[in-house]
Amino acid sequence: xxxxxxxxxxxxxxxxxxxxxxxxxxxxxxxxxxxxxxxxxxxxxxxxxxxxxxxxxxxxxxxxxxxxxxxxxxxxxxxxxxxxxxxxxxxxxxxxxxxxxxxxxxxxxxxxxxxxxxxxxxxxxxxxxxxxxxxxxxxxxxxxxxxxxxxxxxxxxxxxxxxxxxxxxxxxxxxxxxxxxxxxxxxxxxxxxxxxxxxxxxxxxxxxxxxxxxxxxxxxxxxxxxxxxxxxxxxxxxxxxxxxxxxxxxxxxxxxxxxxxxxxxxxxxxxxxxxxxxxxxxxxxxxxxxx
Amino acid sequence: xxxxxxxxxxxxxxxxxxxxxxxxxxxxxxxxxxxxxxxxxxxxxxxxxxxxxxxxxxxxxxxxxxxxxxxxxxxxxxxxxxxxxxxxxxxxxxxxxxxxxxxxxxxxxxxxxxxxxxxxxxxxxxxxxxxxxxxxxxxxxxxxxxxxxxxxxxxxxxxxxxxxxxxxxxxxxxxxxxxxxxxxxxxxxxxxxxxxxxxxxxxxxxxxxxxxxxxxxxxxxxxxxxxxxxxxxxxxxxxxxxxxxxxxxxxxxxxxxxxxxxxxxxxxxxxxxxxxxxxxxxxxx
Amino acid sequence: xxxxxxxxxxxxxxxxxxxxxxxxxxxxxxxxxxxxxxxxxxxxxxxxxxxxxxxxxxxxxxxxxxxxxxxxxxxxxxxxxxxxxxxxxxxxxxxxxxxxxxxxxxxxxxxxxxxxxxxxxxxxxxxxxxxxxxxxxxxxxxxxxxxxxxxxxxxxxxxxxxxxxxxxxxxxxxxxxxxxxxxxxxxxxxxxxxxxxxxxxxxxxxxxxxxxxxxxxxxxxxxxxxxxxxxxxxxxxxxxxxxxxxxxxxxxxxxxxxxxxxxxxxxxxxxxxxxxxxxxxxxxxxxxxxxxxxxxxxxxxxxxxxxxxxxxxxxxxxxxxxxxxxxxxxxxxxxxxxxxxxxxxxxxxxxxxx
Lengths: 291, 285, 354
Known about the structure:
heterotrimer, B: mainly alpha, MetI-like fold, 14 helices, C: alpha+beta, Rossmann fold, CATH 2.40.50.100, 2 domains, 9 helices, 20 strands, elongated
């Protein structure tokens, strides 16, 4: 236990800068020390080490690897499909959340519990199950084939897998906000002559929007990195339906450590920038529609 | 059946047609994306009858995969449980500089692709990794072996328990602990007799989610395991191998076991949420 | 046990919660720390309990410095504002907690614990609820459980943080009386924090008025009420008229007429004259002008419910509140719109703040 640890023996704190606010609760040193050590060991050192290995490669090679057409296309597929899936989820996730919060109907609780299935179902299981359904000989795939198009083994398949994976993120972030909405505000809108649709667009949606954007961001971030549920349904055709995580795995299997490291680092960089952007967007909406 | 929360407010709420349409749309969407895959798993597993299903499950490689999955979870979950309790104690009960940075860092594994979560360990401990040669010289194998699988799983499930406990403990504040200490309890007594009972259901909730992910992780584990049958294959990996060998019945048989685990997890989660909503998290109240 | 507090300072970041506070708490007294929120009263209470650490200064119990005594060893009974009852324990287990966590050598036998908890529950009149959980109790009952729990460790000092703050008005009054009786029976040195002046004046042996991290005045309820140390105390103890006047050559004047004031008169300049409503003397207006040294006012509204009548008067454009008995009111035969003369039995004057 470090010196700051035991509240019992803490001397009157010096004024000015202090790391820990005075307290009588014990165990901070132990808990904080363990937390930091474990965090460094499991997360920070391995991730930092990867970034260092990427830096070792050198700028020129870094860009050469990242900007190769196949890699660029994989980025395009990964980010594009993740965005498409997140936007689809924004619409349907909102409908699901709305229905679960606002309406009472038989089976509501069951459905409510089932929304978390993508959190709980291992991704490889989801992957083969979705493939079985959407492959040309599957339940829905056969229907699509009859209609003349293909779902599995195309980017559409990837989007479907990512819709599955991202759904709970949207529903679970929007639900509490919908629950907290003050019904009086809606009554006020109605009493002022707004139609239901006008009320939704002008009153409700702005209140939900920050949470919806958060949900979309979470689903998007998860979708970009998703691997297990996608690789079965994607078909993994280079420059058509190949995603970045798969490319990383492929490079590793060829013992191209530098390639895998560079692509992984670039992907984390891009994800980070996009999340930063979304964060700004979120603050902006929140300040505009401050509740 | 309880009334709609908004039905007592006649001025707001949708008409019956809109209402039915929205409910129908939601159910249709969820059926296509959630129920159908689940049904597919079980129907494919039993496509060739119960015998074939059982054969797929009792295959020695399948049994070894089940055993490895249980072992990995039995190591990863307690580790992250201890971490989660320590982290939430430090973060929720004390005020110190850099707290929000620490919170963000704890969440970091959530936003890292599973594949990268595996890759970082390959780069450290793999044959061509920074410590690879040294480890080889000392006869220690981490990558393509069980320790690597455990490490990748720990990384991926790292934030789960902490993420559940931190908001819960923040909301509970420090008054209970202060009361216990003024009454003469030691630090350990305070934690055991006051804090732990206050967070027990939230803790169980976090462990449940952590365990589901630990047993189901695929991407990270796939990178570090090397897919050695009977040795480093977990259940999700075994599913992939069988599937790629066109052994669909066996693949879906193992998959159905994992799907069952997911359903049990969901049921337990729902029960916790209904019965102990206020003791799980402030936000779910 | 007596408590001496010497020059205690405490800051939270840029905020000064306590700026060098000294106070002697007498053994066996019931002391109120009274002040608005942010005045430092709760911080002082927590420092005495050992829940917070002072930046400077010392707190001693019967002459012994407490700095190296951790909260758990101070033998202080603390009743938290929101009670902090352990919700997974029954009422009985809550009260027994402090006895059960004692070191093996000091811990009473389980039978003695039962007996002692039984006595305490009887004292707080909750024996019949021993096996209930805190969530099944009313606010007043929780409050009494918290008190019994604090008393179980036989504290030398009892500290109560806003003990009645979370209760509704009726329960609050009952509990107040009950707490006073309890204190009279047990004579434990007790300190309670409150922002309710009525509660402090009614319950405490002595009142400590605090503001901005400073002690403004210490005294019996009668002392602080009748001779407030400054305008803040006057204001905070409630029910006061503030009339803008001036000080000229050591005399306070209102509309040119001298006001008899108690205590010091400050330097020349604008001043505020403080007078409590029941110190306003009214009389029937004589037909011919205003008598020497008195003022004239018109009744603008009148509330006569209960034994005391409250009048709002217009004194040359200023609102003035007066209180008098119903009998006196009927003697004067005042009504809305009638004129009367005004005098002040007791008043104080303080220089006006800009």
